[in-house]
Amino acid sequence: MIQSLLSKSGSTNVPNSLPITNRYGNSPNVRFKMFFGVWAIAALFHMGTFRTFEDDFSHFMLTVAAVFLLVKPGSYLRMLIFISVQLYASFRILPNISNHWFFFSLVNLTILQAFFYLVIKRKSFAIERNEFLETFAPVVKIELIILYFYVVFHKLNSSFFSPEVSCATDFYEAQNAYALLPANKEILLANAFLTVGIEALIPPPGSASPDARPSRA
């Protein structure tokens, strides 16, 4: 139909390929940049929460690598530098590592494996971003589902709902929440129940909207 319309208008220059809409949206580049931009911000938030920006040289380098990636989140080179520094900073403190930072490392290992799998498969570092996303994103989604199942399920014990020993109380105090709300037993108990409730309500990745099937515009 497009060719017919163009021929009637006197033009026969039909583009060889039309833009493709896939389940990651019209522009894989935008999705790619969004993911790694937010990923870099997540690392900065982690270090900001624990005030580890300048604890040692590896954390300083990770801060630099995260900002470096944030400035240009579409760069494979910056992505590889960031992931490499984050993995080094994490593995050097094992086994004294928080659950979420360990999970961060597992996701980075997944991304790294997907990248080099495609490099070997294509015999080139020129990898299409949509193919890269389609390679690691499904695995990361499964990892995220397992993580959220675990973080909810393992809290269902009497200790978590006992303000005197609950880690929910520790995080409440670590975040200085008592500056806004009192730290009495009732508030601390409500904090524990609210934590589990919010985490249980988080929908599985990809359930918010149906996947769009590949189609040509």
Structure notes:
The chain is mainly α and 217 residues long. It is built from eight helices and two strands; from the N terminus they run H-E-H-H-H-H-H-H-H-E. The model is unreliable at 1-26 and 208-217 (pLDDT under 50).
Main sheet strand line-up: 1-2
The number of strands is 2
Which spans of ≥5 residues are poorly predicted at pLDDT below 50? 1-26, 208-217
**How would you sum up the global shape?**
elongated
Q: Quickly count the helices.
A: 8
Domain module tally: 2
- The average pLDDT is 79
Major sheet summary line: 2 strands, antiparallel
Beta-strand proportion: under 5%
The helix content, as a percent range, equals 55-70%
Secondary-structure-derived class? mainly alpha
H and E order? HEHHHHHHHE
For the terminal residues, how far apart are their CA atoms? 12 Å
Radius of gyration: 23 Å
Quick overview of this protein structure:
With 217 residues, the chain is an all-alpha fold.
Task: Give the topology, please.
Elements: H1 2-8, E1 20-21, H2 28-49, H3 57-71, H4 76-91, H5 99-122, H6 129-153, H7 167-174, H8 185-201, E2 215-216
Antiparallel strand pairs: 1-2
Features:
217 residues, mainly alpha, 2 domains, two-stranded antiparallel ribbon, 62% helix, 2% strand, elongated, disordered N terminus, disordered C terminus
